[in-house]
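P.,

For your records, the input lines for the assembly:
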Amino acid sequence: MARRVVITGMGAVSSLGMSARATMDGMAAGRSGISALKFQDVERLQIRIGGQIHGYNEAAHFSRQELSFYDRFTQFAVLAAREAVAQAGAGLAGPKSGVVLGTSGGGLQTQDENFRKVYEDGKNRVHPFVVPRLMNNAAASHLSMLHGITGPSYTVSTACASSNHAMGQAFHMIRAGMADTMLTGGSESMLCFGGIKAWEGLRVMSKTGCRPFSANRDGMVQGEGAAVFVFEALDVAQARGAEILAEVAGFAMTSDASDIVMPNQSGAERAMQGALNDAGLGPEDIGYINAHGTGTAGNDSTECAAIMEVFSGNPPPISSTKSMHGHLIGGTGAVELLACIMALREGILAPTINHDQPDPACSLNVVANVAQEAQPRATLSNAFAFGGLNAVLALRLAP
Amino acid sequence: MAENVATKVREIIAEQAMVEPCEVALDATLESLGVDSLGLVETVFAIEEAFDVHVPFNANDPESKSFDISSVASIVKAVEALIAEAK
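Structure tokens returned:
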């Protein structure tokens, strides 16, 4: 029989707070982490808001030597992992542990900074560690080194679904017996001039705010941060008497095979149905859905139609916490998994803030503006990426 | 100038529609010319580059009155207004 997989540690940094607890508290309070962006050349952008982490002092967390190797996305992953590992209290050193992280931009800020130096400032030399700093696997590699993890480690990059794909892989690896313990989740930090300049070209970003499922929504708002979890085989966690936060019950991934940016209802439906099947759950067992809910015209109506189909017109409460922390792209599924854990452990369903006007195209059971109390026994977390790659995780109450 | 704007806008749309500029009638819609949502975003970009203006277009709200894309003529008119504004 396949091994069961549970979560024994969680850590996060986001514009809602510098820990998993602070991020969940922000979600529960319906607080907005979206503010005016601050970085060089922001005045040359059309889009000037985001879920940026302000007041963060990297030197307070890392030595000068570490910082020469840690892009901001690596720093966030290291901080989140530190918290998750401390909570789990598990010994991760050795070949039975691994790391799978999601990211889309990787060390984009390092690239942006150094492109500016060579192209704009005309410099002919960059720091010798630009490559190890910008590579997409830098965060995963540093986690393996910091925690003595010598089993399988790698990075998954599937745009907005990166974290969910990563956590699904970690789940599969433990279930298959390839590892006992995995550090998994995702990290992203694209809030720099080049990062936002590229995104604004697509004309899908909002200048005013993230309003998922609301009739007046006009686009997505980016965020930054990370969340990292300790996934562990149930038998191993029980043997050491660990506190179990939730069970990873099922996972599924599908491809739309249709359009590079427009989502496809069938792909989303098949991913949700697949996660239910994998978990051995029926639609009636799901008490909360953390939606992909980007606040774009395209995603929200398509996702809602897919949910209505899978849940036969009777969906459970649903929210998009992107309304509060923004869209963390490759890190988003990880931060959003916190909302599912909070729902299961604490009976609090995080709201979708800025839900100003119901939209007939999104007539779901939206947890609007303020958190709700409920006792879900299982949850789904959706991620649907550009490129039509979908990944859905199902969690269940700790056994 | 007005004629030049229309000529250039028709060239830009023709390139996206993969037809000759003379086949882009002023009363045609982008849809009838086969320009999809991605083609529209590229059209807006090409207009901004050609006329050095900022087009207030959000793909989440293509019906918005801030930049009327209901026909080739309405796009020409909107671009002329943006050029006048920029002066």
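Two observations worth noting. Chain B touches chain A at residues 37-38, 41, 44-45, 54, 57-61 (CB under 8 Å). Chain B has a mean pLDDT of 91.

Regards
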